[in-house]
UniProtKB/TrEMBL annotation:
Classification via CDD domains: CAP_ED (cd00038)
Originating organism: Azorhizobium oxalatiphilum
InterPro entries: cNMP-bd_dom, cNMP-bd_dom_sf, Env_Response_Regulators, HTH_CRP, RmlC-like_jellyroll, WH-like_DNA-bd_sf, WH_DNA-bd_sf
Alphabetically ordered keywords of this record: DNA-binding, Transcription, Transcription regulation
Listed name of the protein: Transcriptional regulator
GO CC field: cytosol
GO molecular function: DNA binding; DNA-binding transcription factor activity
Pfam families in the cross-refs: cNMP_binding (PF00027), HTH_Crp_2 (PF13545)
Domain Cyclic nucleotide-binding residues, every copy: 38-158
Residue ranges of every copy of the HTH crp-type domain listed in the record: 172-244
């Protein structure tokens, strides 16, 4: 399935996107893009120049926006929805490294000439991005060093997240990692309490991708937590019955 786009050419058969021509008309990125922390302190006039050749693009659920190994020439600024960053192991298992929401970005490997993406980026629901030619973004960084500093800050945070994932994968059992994942999801939804509900919750297959395992293994672990009264699962919901039990099982 190919990306649905607004005023932009479709993705080519080779996996990349054709170069964008200068934008025409009055269309521009929404405030969630123009007000991203990357561009804080930059005048509206300068921001308009940065975004002028961008295009809004729409991806449906499970659609690949950026393939692992692809050499992108665009950077994608997320306007709505959510994307999962995944990497495939030699065994064939797909491991979800992180999830990106509106106001963040992906495709930063495009800023390093000729560098392939080290992960696959896939929409987890209907999502939109403002796709900007990497050359334009590089020019913006040269003209506004604050963009470079904030980009480095964001990449440092992401490296820290990956380091934590690697440590947990090496030192914790699957159930403990699952409990920590549920804790994180509940915290993000402001539901980390007895009686809290994560809604919509990831499917068992999506949780398996986050944990680098199989759906069957996750299903068994979820049933074990439910039997002990830690959680209760419903359709697209994880109901937290005991936060104390969730933390205890996450050690």
């Amino acid at each position: 399935m190919r990306a649905q786009t607004t005023n932009a050419p479709a993705r080519g058969a080779g996996g990349g996107y054709p170069p964008f021509a200068p934008a025409t008309g009055k269309g521009g990125p929404p405030p969630v893009i123009t007000e991203m922390s990357l561009f804080r302190g930059i005048s509206a006039e300068d921001r308009a120049r940065i975004f002028v050749r961008g295009r809004m693009m729409t991806f449906v659920r499970d659609e690949v926006a950026l393939a692992e190994g692809e050499v992108p020439d665009l950077i994608f600024l997320i306007a709505s929805g959510q994307f999962a960053c995944r990497k495939t192991a030699a065994s064939g298992l797909m491991f979800a490294l992180c999830q990106l929401n509106a106001g963040t970005f992906f495709g930063e490997s495009a800023l390093v000439h000729g560098r392939a993406s080290e992960m696959e980026v896939t929409a987890t629901r209907r999502s939109t991005v403002w796709a900007l030619p990497a050359s334009d973004f590089c020019a913006a960084m040269e003209g506004h060093p604050s963009i470079s500093r904030r980009l480095i800050d964001e990449m440092a945070v992401r490296i820290g997240v990956l380091a934590t994932l690697s440590f947990e994968a090496a030192t914790l059992k699957l159930e403990a990692r699952l409990c920590r994942t549920i804790q994180k999801l509940a915290l993000e939804a402001d539901q980390l309490r007895d009686g809290g509900t994560v809604r919509p919750a990831p499917t068992h297959a999506e949780l398996a991708s986050m944990l680098g395992t199989t759906r069957e293994v996750v299903s068994r672990a979820m049933m074990g937590l439910a039997r002990r009264g830690v959680i209760e699962t419903r359709r697209q919901e994880i109901h937290i019955q005991s936060v104390e039990g969730l933390f205890r099982s996450g050690r």
